[in-house]
Specification:
- By secondary structure, the chain is α/β, with parallel strands linked by helices.
- It has one domain.
- It contains eight helices and six strands; from the N terminus they run H-E-E-E-E-H-H-H-H-H-H-H-E-E.
- The strands form two sheets. The protein has a four-stranded mixed sheet. Strands 1-5 form a two-stranded parallel sheet.
- A hairpin with a 2-residue loop joins strand 3 and strand 4.
- Helix 1 crosses helix 5.
- The longest helix is centred in the first third of the chain and has 22 residues.
- The radius of gyration is 16 Å and the shape is globular.
- 31% of the residues are buried.
């Protein structure tokens, strides 16, 4: 677990800073811990925030262990869920969501997220991270594949414009509840310091 903590500490906060610079609103996150769990049948979630850790454990996967990039990407992705819905002010009827209204729900809830994820990776000179995200996401299921395909076809810019235009004047914040008995990955540094606006 220390290796995963170090991986996040080395890259994660700067990804969140870049996201807030792109959208123009601070991301305030009050927790310093990310619950992780060992059940490989359950995916990660943005709310409540939790990330499966089984794919990163050599004892569980042998040579098929996912690398640190995958962990950083997964945590970043799950954190972006709450940031995106708050940036859209929980509005399920934006122009782009209306345009893609006939898409599956998991496609729609990932459109702005993948657009922001792509924008952050490109702005951070990590285009190879977006390429890896595309490749992996296309193996997760039709809804996720459709979301990244739409972002690739439409470009990330319209989704970013919508995120910027639909924001409230306040900070974007999240406060997930932690289930008792959860495994918790304790980070030595806050995900992003809530006293500093980027």
């Amino acid at each position: 677990m220390p290796e995963l903590t170090n991986a996040w500490d080395g890259e994660g906060p700067s990804l969140l800073q870049t996201a807030t610079k792109i959208i123009g609103k601070p991301f305030i996150y009050s927790e310093k811990d990310i619950p992780v769990f060992l059940c490989s049948a359950i995916p990660g979630w943005g709310l409540p925030l939790m990330v499966p850790v089984t794919p990163y454990l050599k004892t569980a996967n042998g040579s098929d262990t996912w690398d640190n990039f995958e962990f950083i990407d997964a945590v970043f992705h799950e954190l972006l869920h709450m940031y995106v819905v708050r940036a859209l002010r929980w509005n399920p009827r934006t122009d782009l969501l209306k345009k893609f209204g006939n898409e599956a729900i998991y496609t729609k809830i990932h459109l702005h997220l993948y657009a922001l994820q792509k924008a952050v990776y490109l702005a951070s000179n990590k285009g190879d991270w977006w390429a890896r995200t595309l490749k992996r996401t296309r193996g997760f299921g039709a809804e996720y594949q459709r979301a990244v395909d739409i972002v690739e076809q439409e470009g990330f810019e319209p989704f970013i414009k919508e995120l910027k235009g639909e924001q409230s004047s306040g900070s974007i914040s999240a406060r997930p509840s932690l289930a008792s008995g959860s495994w918790v990955l304790a980070l030595r540094k806050p995900l992003i310091d809530h006293r500093i606006e980027f």
